[in-house]
Amino acid sequence: MKIIPDSRKFNYAARIAIFLLTAVLISGMAGCFTPFRMQYALTISSTEGGEVTTPGEGTFPYWEGTVVNLVAVADEDYQFVNWTGNVSAIVDVNAAATNITINDHYSITANFDENLEIRDWYDLDAVRDNLGGNHTLMNDLNSTTAGYTELASPTANQGKGWEPIGRTGTPLFRGTFDGQGYEIRNLFINRPYDGVVGLFGVVARGVVKDIGVVNVTVTGVYWVGGLVGENYYGTVSDSYSTGSVIGSTYVGGLVGRNEVGTVSNSYSTGNVTGNAKVGGLVGVNYEGTVSNSYSTGNVTGEDGVGGLVGRNWGSVSNCHSTGSVTGNDDIGGLMGYSEGTVSDSFWDTETSGQATSDGGTGKNTTEMQDIATFSVAGWNIITVALNQTNPTYIWNIVNKVTYPFLSWQS
Questions:
Q1: 3-class DSSP state of 39
Q2: Is a pLDDT exceeding 50 seen at residue 370?
Q3: In CATH, what number does 39-113 get?
Q4: Could you report how far apart the first and last alpha carbons of the chain are, in Å?
């Protein structure tokens, strides 16, 4: 007797079987499913003076999200400047060795420029002819170096002395100046009717580093500094000044006005005299950053006078000052007036003659020469023996003998 299956039961069983088979297939495919990724092109080139060695030059395909290492190498007598082009995905456009994350098509260029060497005052004067270049000081400059009498002495330029490099109304200094630890000595500037005065007038997105201006005599009206009149979006680091700086407003021992710029690992020991906005290191810090720096010179003014900064609308951290501070309104041992932030910074209440400051913490001389004051505040500091340094730390101190000093100081 032939058995004929119930068609309804058969169809139901068939549906169940198909469902289970589909579920198994989906489950098996889930483990090996790869999301769709785009492939993009990275085009790399370079200017004269060097090449990109990693990954090379040309056009390269990469999957979306790939991190590509970039290494640019300069030829002899050239320096790497920066990366330009579609650089939004590059970690550091100013670093020769960096990386880029591929999320689109990119075309980038490694830029190089001549490394212009400075050996005398004539070479230093020629910096103004290439304000976007890379300049390197190769030795100390002083009153016996060629070109001093004509360019930087009390008799130069009809008694006005040195003409600042990069001034308002002229192309501004936007390059790199590397002092390599050398000094520029006996710089003389006497421009009591001029503004934007210093070795450099205005540094605009440029870099000045590792340079000392020693025994300077600088006189101007506004934006007056021993090294830089105005640092505009620029960087001043590992530098120092000694001597005297005189002006009316925005007057600083190292930098007159720091506008959205950076001043770091630097110091000034010169005496500073002005009317308003006068500081031992920086006259005015306007939305800029001042860090790991100090001043020891005497500061004299009328309004907005500080041992380190006259007026501050930016950020100041890990700094100290010890010089005498004299004035009438808005006077402070560290800050004359501040609407910005001041953190982990100190002034000597005894040597400054000021018990108060609009920011910072006042300490007596004994406390200012005690490492505990600064290590508790989180400074990168270590005790060293007299006449020794430890460059693995930012700050050194001969405990109970000296104030903190920068480890790169000899």
A1: strand
A2: yes
A3: 2.60.40
A4: 113
